[in-house]
Predict the 3D structure of the following.
Amino acid sequence: MTNCKFLPQESKTDTERCVLAWNLIGTVILRREGDAYTSIDLEFNDRGFHRNFNFTDDIGACMASLSYAGILLASKSKNLEE
């Protein structure tokens, strides 16, 4: 699984957040709401040039890298021999 720990939010919802990548360009956050929904939030530091967005985490991302060229997400491999 991922090497980051989920931090519970101050609100009374079941939302947990984990920072996958952070640099001068922006932040990639894995957000888990209960057991049913997980999304990736991309928040840019320069909001005048980029728009923040989010999308559903269908791959089970556990690592990320963010650059001016794009975003790279990685997930844990599954053992297909079982």
Summary: The chain is about 0% helix and 50% strand. The CA atoms of residues 1 and 76 lie 7 Å apart.
